[in-house]
Amino acid sequence: MRIAPASAAVVAALATAPAAAMAAASIPDLADQALAWIVTAIVTAVASAIVGVVAKLTGAKLDQQARDTSQVALTNAANAAIRWMLTAAAETPIGKRIELAIEQMLPYVETGAAGAVKRFDMAAKGANRIHLEEMAAAKLVEQLGHAAPDDLKAVIRAIGA
């Protein structure tokens, strides 16, 4: 269970309030202690809220950088996979060729965007591995659309389609 900083501050303030009240020797001292306690609780809550906002902004920026890095790695991997599909795998049936190309893309992405793969838990045994495979397939299809038409025509002619 995760405890928010603001909740921890309120609990700490409530825990110290009776001790502060017992330290007061008179009513004016008690009022001073209560005022100090209230100000401390408010300052702590505001500070923890500011820390929370900064953490969210920083986390969002890190997530965006990780997404950008993974997209570059996926694009580079797809381009390499297309070259492989057009040359080394020319004798492989097209459906199997696409599966093999995607399998070849994954190690490239894991190396080129290791931080992003780790951040989003897309490593080989990660919970989001399927998502990485789907992203690789989508990027391969996208990059095939950008491939040189002459290269694709040659491959289509070679497979007899």
UniProtKB/TrEMBL annotation:
The chain crosses the membrane at residues 35-55. It comes from the Bacteria. Residues 1-23 form the signal peptide. Keywords: Membrane, Signal, Transmembrane, Transmembrane helix. This is Holin. It comes from Paracoccus benzoatiresistens.
